[in-house]
Specification:
heterodimer; A: alpha+beta; SH3 type barrels; 2 domains; five-stranded antiparallel β-sheet; 5 strands; B: alpha/beta; Nitrile Hydratase, Chain A; two-stranded parallel sheet; globular
C-alpha cells in the first residue's frame, strides 16, 4: 500500500554515509554539487519546472512513480532526470522521437551537430535576469481561504490507515506509511496549504488546514522505541486526521 | 494545471513505456542529451542554468543559516521573533523564497534536542542551508532517523544523554525547519561574526553541535 520513496522506519539500511576527513572528523562543508552533471540535472529540472506546465506535487509524484527497480538503482539526480524526461514527454514539450534522436547523437558523440542551430527562446522560458526574483519569491503553498481548522491544539487525533489518497489508487500523498493509523496530538495549526493529494493529479489546489502533529516514539515503534521520551513531528493535512475516540 | 494532453489522474501516471528507459546508461551523457535538446528547443536558456548553479554554489548556503543563529544568540528580541515567526525573522536578513517560504525554527535546550529529516523526499530549507548534502538525501538517513535517531546521531559522533528528549521533525509538507543550536560555553565575549564561524551546517540540522572554542 505504499511506494519505495516512503521509507521512514524501514529496516535494512546501513550506516549513514557521513563524510569524514583524514582525522576522522565529520566534514560540514562539501561542494554543492559533486559532479557537473549533478548541477546540470538539478538546474534543467528547475528551469523546466519554470515553464509552468506542472507543479511541485506533480514533479514529486513523477519521481515516486519511477518503477521500483529504477527507484532503487538510480542515484538521486538520476531519479530527477528520469522523472523530468517522463514529464517532458507527457506534457508534449518534447517528443519521444526527438529524445531518441538526441540520445543516439549523445551516444555517438555527435551532439555538437545540433549546436549551431538557430535557437528561438519559447515565450515561457525562464530568463537569467529573472532568476533571483523568482527564487526570492519561491512558490508559497499557503492560500487565503475562509476555512477554519476543525482541530484544536492539544486534540488527540488518529491518522488514516491504508491509502490516504481517496481519489487515486496509488496516488500521491504526504502521510507516510509509518504514521498511518497512529494516535498523535495536534501541536500547531499552520494555515491552509495546497493539498498535494489533489494537486499532484491535476485536480486543483484544494487548500486545506495543515497541522503539525506530535507522535510519541513508543506510539510509532512500540517496544522498539529507543526512548519513551522521544517524539516525532509530522506536518499533516486535515483529511489525514480524525478525532481519536480514546 | 490539469492538462488535456495526458491524463495524470492515474497513480501510475505514465501508461506508455517509461520514456526514461530510452536514456543512455552513462548519466553524464543522459544529462547532456536532455540539456541539448531543451536548449535547442528554446525551452531552457544556458545563462539561466549558469545563474542557478552559481547562486547555490556561491551565494546561498549554510553561511546564511549561521548568521541567523549567531544573531539569535546575541539578540534576545531577535530570537523571540525567530521562534515566533521564523519566516519573517529570517527575511530581516534578506534570506527568503524557494524552499523556505514557510520557516519554523526549533530550539535546542539542555532538555531537548531537535533533528530534521524528510523521509518522503529531500525537503530542506534552501535559503538558509542551500542544497542538501548527500547523506541527508540518502536512504539510510531517511529511513532510520525517525525510528532510531539516537543511533543515527551516534554515527555523526553525537552522543546524547538518555534524559534529553529528542524531537524529530519529518518535513512532510511545505514547512521547512531549522534547528537553533545552543550557544557554546565560554563565548560570552564573542560578537555575531565570530559566533557565526562556530555554527556548523550539521548543528542547524541537528546532526551536530556548534564548534567549541579551544
Amino acid at each position: 500500500m505504499s511506494r519505495l520513496h516512503d521509507m521512514g522506519g524501514r529496516f535494512g539500511d546501513g550506516s549513514i554515509p557521513v563524510p569524514r576527513n583524514d582525522e576522522n572528523e565529520v566534514i560540514n562543508f562539501e561542494p554543492t554539487f559533486k559532479y557537473e552533471w549533478h548541477a546540470k540535472a538539478w538546474a534543467i529540472t528547475l528551469a523546466s519546472g519554470a515553464l509552468g506546465e506542472w507543479n511541485l506535487d506533480i514533479s514529486r509524484h513523477y519521481r515516486e512513480c519511477l518503477p521500483p527497480k529504477d527507484y532503487i538503482n538510480f542515484s538521486y539526480y538520476e531519479k530527477w532526470l528520469a522523472a523530468l524526461v517522463n514529464l517532458l514527454i507527457d506534457k508534449e514539450l518534447i517528443s519521444l522521437n526527438e529524445l531518441k534522436e538526441y540520445v543516439s547523437a549523445a551516444k555517438n558523440g555527435t551532439l555538437t551537430k545540433f549546436s549551431d542551430k538557430d535557437v528561438k527562446l519559447d515565450h515561457r522560458t525562464w530568463l537569467a535576469k529573472d532568476v533571483q526574483k523568482t527564487l526570492g519569491w519561491g512558490g508559497p503553498s499557503v492560500r487565503d481561504t475562509n476555512l477554519k481548522p476543525v482541530f484544536d491544539i492539544g486534540d488527540k487525533v488518529i491518522t488514516q490507515n491504508y491509502s490516504p489518497n481517496k481519489d487515486v489508487s496509488g496516488g500521491h500523498t504526504r502521510l507516510p506509511k509509518y504514521a498511518m493509523g497512529r494516535v498523535g496530538v495536534i501541536h500547531s495549526y499552520n494555515n491552509n496549504h495546497v493539498f498535494p493529494d489533489k494537486n499532484a493529479h491535476g485536480f486543483g489546489e484544494n487548500p486545506l488546514p495543515l497541522y503539525t502533529v506530535e507522535f510519541k516514539s513508543s506510539e510509532l515503534w512500540g517496544e522498539l522505541a529507543e526512548s519513551q521520551n522521544d517524539s516525532i513531528f509530522l506536518d499533516l493535512w486535515e483529511p489525514y486526521l480524525k478525532l481519536s475516540p480514546n | 494545471m490539469m492538462s488535456d494532453k495526458k491524463n495524470i489522474a492515474e497513480g501510475d501516471n505514465h501508461s506508455h513505456d517509461h520514456a526514461h528507459s530510452h536514456l543512455p546508461s552513462d548519466p553524464e551523457l543522459r544529462v547532456k542529451a536532455v540539456e541539448t535538446l531543451l536548449l535547442n528547443k528554446g525551452l531552457i536558456d544556458s545563462k539561466t542554468l549558469d545563474e542557478l548553479i552559481d547562486t547555490y554554489e556561491n551565494r546561498i548556503g549554510p553561511k546564511n543559516g549561521a548568521k541567523v543563529v549567531a544573531k539569535a544568540w546575541v539578540d534576545l528580541e531577535y530570537k523571540k521573533r525567530l521562534l515566533n515567526d521564523a519566516t519573517s525573522a529570517i527575511r530581516e536578513l534578506s534570506y527568503q523564497g524557494r524552499q523556505g517560504e514557510n520557516m519554523v525554527v526549533v530550539e535546542n535546550t539542555p532538555e531537548t534536542h531537535n533533528v530534521i529529516v524528510c523521509t518522503l523526499c529531500s525537503c530542506y530549507p534552501w535559503p538558509v542551508l542551500g542544497i542538501p548534502p548527500t547523506w541527508y538525501k540518502s536512504d539510510e538517513y531517511r529511513s532510520r532517523t525517525v525510528r532510531e535517531p539516537r543511533k543515527v546521531l551516534l554515527e555523526f559522533g553525537l552522543s546524547l544523554d538518555p534524559k534529553v528528549k529528542i524531537k524529530v521533525w519529518d518535513s512532510t509538507a511545505e514547512i521547512r525547519y531549522l534547528v537553533l543550536p545552543m550557544r557554546p560555553k565560554g563565548t560570552e565575549h564573542m560578537g555575531e561574526n565570530e559566533l557565526a564561524e562556530l555554527v556548523t551546517r550539521n548543528s542547524m540540522i541537528g546532526t551536530g553541535l556548534p564548534k567549541e572554542i579551544k
